[in-house]
Amino acid sequence: MMKYDFTSIMERKGMDAIAVDNVGKHMWGNEPQPPKDGFDFVPMWVADMNFPTCPAVTEAIIKRAKHPAFGYFTPREEYFDATIRWQEEHHKTAGLTKEAIGYENGVHGCVTSAVQVLSQPGDCILLHRPFYLGFSEDIETIGRKSIYSDLKKDEDGIYRMDFEDMDAKIKKYRIHLVIFCSPHNPTGRVWERWELEKAMEIFEKNKCYVISDEIWADLTFSGHQHIPTQMVNEWARQHTIAAYAPSKTFNLAGMIGSYHIIYNPYLRDRIRTYGENTHYNSQNVLSMHAQIGAYSPQGYEWVEELRQVLEKNCRYACEFINQEIYGVDVTMPQGTYMIFLDCTEYCRETGKTLDDVINAGWDVGIGWQDGRHFGGNCHIRMNLALPLSQIEKVCMLMSEHVF
């Protein structure tokens, strides 16, 4: 019996949610179209959750909001203590201190600051493909070039890094900066220790710095443990900029509040100075209290239930698609709440294009996302952080109207 509510369908329309209010508006250029008459829209594209956040978060925000002054402030010791405790208990970090934690408006802000500090315009930066589209945009808009190393599926359908290709690309393009995604979005891979060790060995040999996006770290499934990149070895600890946030875990993207962990004082000073000199990388007092509430004892309890819900959702959808829908392949993720559908065989066998498939889904209210924006040639990305009843409904719509 669940203590928290992950089954009610939360009404988000008119409540400042891009996932529902921006359908058909073309603000980003990849929004779904509204469904045809008779169908309700199910948001499965923006990577936020259709669950209410942990009650401790809203309680912390309300408690602080009752005090009528919101002037200049510095972060509370409680903020740092809660963050260190969360990292130690969830991710087995060791030796984390207040000094290594720095505020970021978002993971993108951390990434762009680090890219500006650690590279020059025209430099090439390595990413894995499929990739999170935001990172390729971060790189390209500030004059750098993305170089991709493709993840390869093994005999069990698990996405793996191609270490030989990584090493070859780094050497060919004289790369000295890598953006690493752990757990990986959009494939849902939770990297094993040996994989991380091998990747760090390649990066060290080629004198690369590493920007590690670990925003999904809390959302791993049974049998899979997130290993912070900085905990792999001492070299990784001193050469990695790690970015975290409570936003994915607690549905707080609209609160704006992420943080970096940088152990190396030289890197820390340079990246912090760059971010601070923009005069826009400043913490919000309510987002600070939201994070304190999230990283409270109730937050620990709530996340454990959430992980069970997300794993059940992903397992249901993946089993249904692989068993009931011919020509579409999907790998059960090991974490996150995203799945990445490969429609290559279906399109080849039927003669339909990926656009045909995507539009057919949009017509009946399936608000999924074009996977080509993430480096998938014939793929669709789906967000499964919503009540299971909605996922069951979408699976039936896929079977009856799309495929």
Key features of this structure:
5-stranded mixed sheet, globular, single chain, 15 helices, 403 residues
Topology (SSEs and partners):
Blueprint: H1 18-21, E1 42-43, H2 55-65, H3 77-91, E2 101-104, H4 107-118, E3 124-129, H5 133-141, E4 145-150, E5 152-153, E6 159-160, H6 163-172, E7 177-181, H7 193-205, E8 209-213, H8 234-239, E9 240-244, H9 247-250, E10 258-261, H10 265-277, H11 285-294, H12 297-324, E11 338-342, H13 344-350, H14 354-363, E12 366-367, E13 369-370, E14 379-383, H15 388-402
Parallel strand pairs: 1-12, 3-4, 7-8, 8-9
Antiparallel strand pairs: 2-10, 5-6, 9-10, 11-14, 13-14
Number of separate strands: 14
Percent of residues in β-strands: 5-15%
| Pattern of helices and strands | HEHHEHEHEEEHEHEHEHEHHHEHHEEEH
Nearest-integer average pLDDT = 96
Largest sheet, in brief, is: 5 strands, mixed
In which range does the helix fraction lie? Answer: 40-55%
Silhouette: globular
Q: Strand order of the main beta sheet, please? A: 2-10-9-8-7
Radius of gyration: 21 Å
What is the SS-derived class? alpha/beta
How many separate helices?
15
Terminal CA distance: 35 Å
Uncertain segments of ≥5 residues (pLDDT<50)?
none
Task: Describe the protein's architecture and organization.
There is one protein chain. The chain has 403 residues and is an alpha/beta fold. The protein is 41% helix and 14% strand. It contains 15 helices and 14 strands. The radius of gyration is 21 Å and the shape is globular.
In short:
By secondary structure, the protein is an alpha/beta fold. The protein is 41% helix and 14% strand.
